[in-house]
Amino acid sequence: MKVQKQNKHLSINLVFVTGNANKLREVQYILSQGQRPIQIDSHDLDSKLAFIFHFPEIQGTTQEVARAKCQRAAELLGGPCITEDTALCFKALNGLPGPYIKYFMKSIGHDGLNSMLDGFPTKEAWALCTFAYSSGPDAEPILFEGRTEGMIVPARGPATFGWDPVFQAEDTGKTYAEMTNEEKNFISHRYRALDKLRNYLESL
Ligand SMILES: O=c1nc[nH]c2c1ncn2[C@H]1C[C@H](O)[C@@H](COP(=O)(O)OP(=O)(O)OP(=O)(O)O)O1
Ligand SMILES: [Mg+2]
Q1: Measuring CA to CA, which residue among 201, 204, 203 is closest to residue 1?
Q2: Dihedral through CA 154, CA 159, CA 164, CA 165, nearest 10?
Q3: 88 CB-near residues (< 8 Å, 6+ apart)
Q4: How far apart are CA 178 and CA 117, in angstroms?
Q5: CB contact at 8 A, 108 and 88
Q6: CA triplet 132, 174, 65: central angle to 5 degrees?
Q7: Where does this protein hold Mg(2+) (predicted)?
Q8: What's the whole-model pTM score?
Q9: Which long-range CB contacts under 8 A does 166-170 form with residues at least 24 apart?
Q10: Would you say the CB of residue 20 lies under 6 angstroms from ligand 1?
């Protein structure tokens, strides 16, 4: 992803390294909103699709996983980049599946995620997004976290993006899947993390 700051002379060229088209779509949408939109060069974006890597992700805390992925991406690219990790954390399970949610989703699906909490007193959960920015292979990645509270519910809404149908965001009565793009991207874990990243980039 090439981002270009308007309103200032400085422009930032960044690659968003991800294999997830839904993430990319939401990031583009969020960055296009706001008072000072960060514009994504879609022509460049197309050519950058060649840079979508699928590499192994380590085990550890969400921060360790995020740092390692960004470090690896910067090494492979030989330049600045951002990466993003999403965790879905169950209160009753002390934060698990957390960064391993992808493999839980793949193996047991929406019903399985609900069944995991059978017998537990709380269905509370939070979605945690961690953006990592690296200025290059020799730099330590910087992390930006965003968190949205909610609960795990039987699936409602279109199954377009991951676990969206089973995550009901606090105070909304809606699952992420039942929300419009605008609604989700106003309260989402991704929006909150990206807002911090945006502030950081604007301060450079
Ligand atoms: O807003 C979301 N709403 C619903 N599901 C979501 C969301 N955001 C990520 N997800 C899913 C995708 C993957 O199953 C797992 C995170 O794993 P994660 O490694 O961060 O993503 P990924 O491997 O798909 O893409 P990437 O190449 O950026 O690592 O949660
Ligand atoms: Mg991944």
Answers
A1: 201
A2: -20
A3: 97, 98, 101, 113, 125, 126, 127, 128, 163, 167
A4: 22
A5: no
A6: 20
A7: 57, 85
A8: 0.90
A9: 166/110, 166/113, 166/114, 167/88, 167/125, 167/127
A10: yes
pLDDT tens digit sequence for 75-90 = 888 888 888 999 999 9
- Nearest ligand 1 atom, CA 52: 27
| pLDDT tens figures, 117-176 | 999 999 999 999 999 999 999 999 999 999 999 999 999 999 999 999 999 999 999 999
Fold of 3-203: Maf protein (3.90.950)
Residue 63 half-sphere exposure toward CB, CA atoms < 13 A: 5
- Give the separation between CA 77 and CA 72, rounded to whole angstroms: 9
